[in-house]
Amino acid sequence: MLTNKTFLVLLGVLNFLNIFDAVATSIWIEYFGATELNPLMDWLIGFGYFTFISVKTLSVFLVSFIMWKNRNQNYTNLALYIGLVVYGVLVMYEIGMSILLAISYL
User: pLDDT for 77-89, tens place per residue?
Assistant: First the structure.
């Protein structure tokens, strides 16, 4: 089990990674012709980037709040770890692709 402080910090990291992903996705779609692979998020982008980022951010924040309320359950810790790994890998991919794009312009 994680301490309350550690759990809260990890929830903060999860939300930061989510916001980073939303902004990076918006930039990649707008300026580099990328596509959103998640059909629900792709549908939201149709309403504009502000709506996309807002709904995505609020959704993960709501899930984080639910996780915080259930932080003493083992499944909650597992869900948090899975979320951190998924978003961590996704953000590393986005950063890597950005570096490759920047190098290609040199």
Answer: 999 999 999 999 9
